[in-house]
Design brief:
It contains 23 helices and 8 strands. By secondary structure, the chain is α/β, with parallel strands linked by helices.
Length: 482
């Protein structure tokens, strides 16, 4: 016993060091991020100048290496000043069988599951299937309720998501299943992630599994190939919250039938199901009629297209996030209005635009202007123009809407009843076509580009101050795009 004492003392010291490292990480990252990515990281050994850590999944290993290696090195070097490297390895289910799997289960089943919202051990009742068989799709730590921007078109869906997240494991389920649908880039995946993170934080004992339809299909096919389908299905039915994204991609009669059985089993057993797709259940023609009926039996909520106010709010929040990292990065209101008016299809386009502008500003040190923004996001604007709008379309729409003659619109007359429609026409021409300022000026009565630029900025300013004008311009845009 005395011979083994130094080794035991060394292990105890390493354990104490690792505990202090974890405390530092949690203080820096916050409980949610720490529990998600570091909850199941274990210290294996310290060999010379290399710290050896183990994790339960390959995904978690890759994520920590690419996102947190430097921060982990800083925190660890305070306990181990001589270390120069951190190595990760993936623990395997059969590793040494010490401690026994039964004793390790609480760590695996805890809400601190880092790689996925639910590991196989948290969803299963035993070791009939490999741990990877029920690995969920990775959650994005940025996608929480706090980071979700709420507006008129998504308020109902967000409220329903919060209600569902609060009720899991605590009260009778009111909306089961919750079915969210809407076009690409409007926030469906963000909401599913937010529900997952909220439940993991508020109801740690709950077993949560977030999957894309594609991942569900691949897991089921693998289980069939390994002749492990029965255990796979039983494990699925033992979770408390199942979230399926991109439901429209679920294909194959066998897979659909199995998912339908799983869906019925979970709902009938009082377990929560949340599904997201790009259209309503009745429009998913590839799905079995019984499944469409069951999905439509809960709360079906649509995320509508983003209006101007929501697009502007998203831009403001993203700029604020970038500004918190680099206080010198600021975007003028005119540029924000330009982007909110021009990028209308997807929240991802808006976020991408801000990322690009910060990169351009950082790399070139050039000021951010409307002209610069237009160049930076020109390909995104092209993607938002499914219809090729012509100058004649704009002139015809303006004259009809405002009741003015085309000849007056192109003349030198300065009456307010003519000037304002003319300025709006120039603004729409810039927003909805690829014409340059000089080209627009020529089509509006041979005016120079400075007159066109003045008109565009004037309308942008008025739209910011006058809600009715902004709505009128949005209406004209829709008329031209339809």
């Amino acid at each position: 016993m005395d011979e083994n004492r130094p080794e035991k003392d060394n292990k105890e010291r390493l354990k104490e060091h690792w505990t202090r490292i974890r405390i530092r990480l949690k203080a820096e990252l916050g409980d949610d991020v720490f529990n998600s990515w570091f909850g199941r990281v274990e210290l294996d050994a310290l060999n010379g100048k290399t710290l050896h850590l183990s994790v339960p999944t390959r995904f978690l290993k890759n994520w920590l290496q690419s996102h947190y290696r430097d921060r982990l090195m800083v925190c660890s070097s305070e306990e181990f000043p001589d270390i120069t490297r951190i190595e990760f390895r993936v623990r395997r289910p059969h590793d040494a069988l010490k401690p026994p799997v039964e004793k390790r289960r609480p760590a695996s089943a805890a809400p601190s599951s880092a790689a996925t919202p639910a590991s196989a051990t948290s969803a299963a009742g035993g070791n009939e299937t490999p741990l990877d068989d029920l690995d969920g799709s990775p959650l994005d730590p940025r996608f929480t309720f706090d980071s979700f921007v709420v507006g008129t078109t998504n308020r109902l869906v967000c409220a329903a998501g919060r209600e569902v997240a609060d009720s899991v494991g605590r009260a009778p389920l009111r909306y089961n299943p919750l079915y969210i649908h809407g076009n690409v880039g409007l926030g469906k995946t963000h909401l599913l992630n937010a529900v997952s993170w909220h439940v993991r934080a508020q109801a740690p004992q709950s077993r949560v599994l977030y999957l894309t339809a594609e991942r569900f299909m691949s897991r089921f096919v693998r289980a069939l190939r390994n002749r492990d389908a029965v255990a796979f299905k039983e494990n699925l039915r033992g979770i408390d919250l199942l979230l399926i994204d991109d439901m429209e991609f679920l294909q194959g009669p066998t897979i659909q039938q199995e998912f339908c059985h799983t869906l019925n089993s979970l709902i009938d057993g009082g377990r929560q199901v949340v599904v997201a797709a790009d259209r309503a259940p009745a429009q998913l023609e590839r799905l079995d009629a019984r499944m469409r009926s069951r999905l439509a039996g809960g709360l079906v909520a649509e995320i509508g297209p983003m209006d101007f106010d929501l697009r502007q709010a998203i831009l403001q929040k993203r700029v604020g996030e970038e500004h918190s990292q680099d206080t010198g990065f600021l975007v003028p209101d005119s540029v924000m209005d330009f982007l909110a008016n021009r990028l209308t299809e997807s929240g991802r386009e808006l976020e991408g635009a801000i990322v690009r502008m910060r990169a351009a500003w950082h790399l070139t040190a050039e000021p951010i202007t409307v002209e610069a923004a237009e160049y930076i996001v020109r390909d995104l604007m092209h993607g938002a123009e499914p219809k090729h709008i012509k100058m004649d379309d704009i002139l015809r729409t303006i004259t009809k809407h405002f009741g003015v003659n085309r000849s007056d619109l192109l003349s030198a007359r300065r009456n307010r009843s003519i000037v304002r429609p003319r300025q709006i026409g120039m603004y729409l021409a810039k927003m909805l076509t690829s014409r340059s300022l000089p080209e627009i000026g020529r089509r509006f009565g041979n005016r120079d580009h400075t007159t066109v630029l003045h008109a565009i900025r004037k309308i942008e300013q008025l739209m910011k101050e006058d809600t009715s004008l902004r709505e009128e311009v949005e209406l004209l845009k829709r008329v031209l795009k339809d």
